[in-house]
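Task card 7
Instruction: Convert sequence to structure tokens.
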Amino acid sequence: MHFSGEEAVVEWKNLSRIMEPLAKSAEALSFANFRNDIFAALTVGRGGSDFVKSGVLNGGPIDAMNTLNGPFSYLLEKAQVKNKFLRNLIDLECFVLSGVVADGTLSPEMAYMYQERHKKDSKLDYPIGGTKAIIDALVRGLEKYGGNLVLGKHVDEITFDGKGGGANGVLLSSGQRIKANKKVVSNASIWDTYSKLIKPEHLPPEASKLVSSIPELDSFMHLHLGIDGKDLPDELGIHHLVVNSWEGGVDTEANVVNISIPTMLDKSIAPPGKHLIHAYTAANEPFGLWKDMKRGSEEYNRMKEERSECL
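Output:
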């Protein structure tokens, strides 16, 4: 209450009430239900009844469109959230989740996150063995169903069945072609996929407009440490978030620092008595400072020392 006051409590409760239909609709129609083939109606239809009952359509089609496909700031205005501390706190939550504040973060992901987090006995799971354990599990699943994982192979181009045809595979820098049985999925950024991996003649007319309309986030400064765990309290916890200043917005340069100490939960990933720390500035390190620097150069190393001081 010292930071916010009764006003913020009332505003938060009002926002929670307005978010509830959206959270229920997001739960009814999970992202796993959406697909672009003839069976879309079948998978979406499974949650269609719960979606309608959620109440997200009660405000009319324009409100529903803004709620389902608009920024979270739309719901903040709808709920009349004015308290400065609460607005900053919500901007922080959005920023940590998506890399942008409320006016750039989609409402459904925030409403769903808040609903899941505030459920009774809600927990955040941590993979024993670190994130490598998740990768290992994905590889096991891929190989179990006949997949073949190929690493260290640079992809030069996504190939197509003539002009206007669909993607049919990839061309490696070695000259090897790998054919796709069904589809090609690119995990490269939209800018790299559309500007480097696909030749212009295979792109739809709206592709260039789409690429130019999506803003790039700032970069990250990471610090990985191994420390002596002596005198580190057991109740310290795994995740910590530092906001250096609430003034000027949480997304200002080097303002928000994330700190993770995974060994507080999983002792297996470090030697006995030691701890791992991962600290980083999240999407608030200007990439322009680094763009023309040569990695490993004296200038580059000096910049790393200078820019990591905030961590």
